[in-house]
Amino acid sequence: MLRVIANYYLPHLVTLEVGGHPLWELAYPRPYWSQLKSFANQAGIDPYFALAIMREESHFDPLALSSSKAMGLMQLMPATAKYVARKKKIKLNQKDEIFNPELNTRLGTLYLGSLAERFKSELIHTAGSYNAGPHNMIKWINRWRGESIDAFVEQIPFSETREYVKRVYRSYKLYKQIYSS
Q1: Full 3-state SS string of the chain
Q2: 57 is catalytic
Q3: CATH no. of 2-27+46-179
Q4: pTM listed for this prediction
Q5: Chain-wide mean pLDDT for the chain?
Q6: Which of 6, 85, 113, 150 gives 90 a disulfide partner, CB atoms 3.0 to 4.6 angstroms apart?
């Protein structure tokens, strides 16, 4: 249903305005856009993919803290943030620095870029590995090799990850549609 709405109605809805802002831009904003775009480009990933990850991970709350202790805009686990910082020689002294929007975005896009490289830029695999870890994604790819991407998504055994990749992909496609002009 969402696909029908997006394909048929989105071109018309993009022109509707609320308070001087196009309606879809209110639902799909681009906070932190200039730094996110710069970091995403440096990491070799589509900035709109990184933005979709950020939207679904934290809803753009720089102080977001999940029940699993993921932190900030890109919802980085402290161990992941430390690993990326050490690998890329980025200064990270205290765990609370992960909440800093600029540092979080930089580390998050670098990590996302490494996953995209590992999974040959396949968005579903990259998003799923960002959520459930690359080892789980590799296991699932091997288990369902040859399945269509839609069938693969429905086979993901973690319901959280299965729904997450759908939300990220939908957000990514909508961001591309809304801001393509």
Answers
A1: CHHHHHHHHHHHHCCCEECCEEHHHHHCCCCCHHHHHHHHHHHCCCHHHHHHHHHHHHCCCCCCECCCCCECCCCECHHHHHHHHHHCCCCCCCHHHHHCHHHHHHHHHHHHHHHHHHCCCCHHHHHHHHHHCHHHHHHHHHHCCCCCHHHHHHHCCCHHHHHHHHHHHHHHHHHHHHHCC
A2: yes
A3: 1.10.530.10
A4: 0.88
A5: 92
A6: 85
